[in-house]
Amino acid sequence: MIILGTISVGLAVFLMGIDEHKALALGPGGPLMEDFWENMRRYGLYALTVSTGVLYSVFQPIVELLRNPISAILVLTIIGGSIFIVSQVVSAMIGLSDFSYDYSY
């Protein structure tokens, strides 16, 4: 087992030495840092494109419904009612309303 382990470790070290392009972090300007900032830029761009795509997919059907006057009234009523309900729930959650629970036991 020891001989087999030694041979496998030696083979791994040999295969690592064959690679000409080693990734060495040579301080703040090293190749790994350049790749890091390039990946960070790509992830930010990815997050921006995904979020704008989701917003477009959500609002496109609503814009289509707003072109018809009857459905526009319904959509605006639903949006207004939703905003009102959410504002009432949030104000009750943070204690801005005067509503109190009277438990009668």
TrEMBL record:
Protein name, per record: Uncharacterized protein ycf33
Q: What are the TM regions of this chain, as residue ranges?
A: 41-59, 71-96
Localization annotation: Plastid
Q: Which UniProt keywords apply?
A: Membrane, Plastid, Transmembrane, Transmembrane helix
Principal cellular location given in the protein's record? plastid
Query: Key word Ribonucleoprotein present in the record?
Result: no
State the organism's lineage. Answer: Eukaryota, Viridiplantae, Streptophyta, Embryophyta, Tracheophyta
Q: Does the keyword Plastid apply?
A: yes
GO cellular component term, pick one = plastid
State the species of origin: Abeliophyllum distichum
Family note: Belongs to the ycf33 family.
Source organism superkingdom:
Eukaryota
> What InterPro entries would the database entry show?
Uncharacterised_Ycf33
What's a Pfam family in this record? DUF751
